[in-house]
Amino acid sequence: MTQDTAGHTARDITQGATRDTTRDTAHQRRGLSPRGIHVPLITPFTSGGDVAAEALEILAHEVLDAGAAGIVALGTTAEAAALDEAERDLVTTVCARVCRERGAPLTVGTGASGTRAAEAALARLGRWPEAGAALVTVPPFVRPSAAGVAAHFARLAEVSPVPLVVYHVPYRTGQPLGASAVRALGELPGVVGVKYAAGGIDQETLALLGELPAGFAFLAGDDVYLSPLLALGAAGGILASAHVATDRYVELVSAWRSGDVPSARTLGHALARLSAALFAEPNPAVVKGVLYAQGRIPCPDVRLPLLPASQAAVTGALAALSAVMEPGCHGRTLAEPDERHR
């Protein structure tokens, strides 16, 4: 497959501390859809270990056909850390082409421990006009103060060519943030949402959902907690689990939104069991194992230091998927997944 990069020109990046109205309007127009399910696509590989670009393109079309509101390129699920720069560019180009053809929102994962490095990563997004938002992690490993995190995102929001979605995932970054700190990030011009993956639902989660900044989208990032977060007011989710049964995750959002509580509860329990099964081993190994079993990708491989999913994990996930696809499935007790696999 050839890469369609013709006509993709780098746009100027404003360096000043003051944002102008034209740029803010462009951010609002091109930003992440505030509702629905966004799928952070895996990076499929060939048996020889290369990026399977054609399979990626087909997969992107499939999740959009099933009702996904948008796709995310180069998230954690994409094994972005294991891809070289040329591979990351290829993945972004393929996803951008699909989103251009479909008129769908594209979010691209980026970020770094250092602010300068994160600025450079964001600047490169100017190559893809289809990119509507950047999913940016809270700075990992360095553990800055809450004020340092705020300064980091304020600087990135000043220079980014696209709006930012904060990726709050403390069990990966080592940086917990309270509701007030996340709310402060949401008040920054150019920050349009948060992928919230704090490992559970606690008082800080409730406090944040109870007082969200205007126009700031709370998107569930812990797949297993999607249903209760929707019940509490989340706008949608960025969910690796939605590679499979995409339409059922979309249906769950619609059920909560329409007030069909009985249907939402039943489906929510079933999807939570599916998500738990898909995260039984480090992400995205089991997701890839299921997609391979379905014939949707050419190879189930992940790159070291990840290992392929065990057959038992794939079998369990396929059984959970089968139950989700049956009408009238009923809730059962759900064992909490190991958050280290998120």
Structural account:
With 342 residues, the protein is α/β, with parallel strands linked by helices. 43% of the residues lie in helices and 11% in strands. Strands 1-2-3-4-5-6-7-8 form an 8-stranded parallel β-barrel, surrounded by 8 helices. β4, α5 and β5 form a beta-alpha-beta unit. α7 runs parallel beside α8.
- Please provide the count of β strands: 8
Q: What overall form do the CA principal axes indicate?
A: globular
| Share of residues in helices | 40-55%
Structural class: alpha/beta
What features would you highlight for this structure?
alpha/beta; eight-stranded parallel β-barrel; globular; disordered N terminus
Brief characterization of the structure:
Helix content is 43%, strand content 11%. It has 342 residues and is α/β, with parallel strands linked by helices.
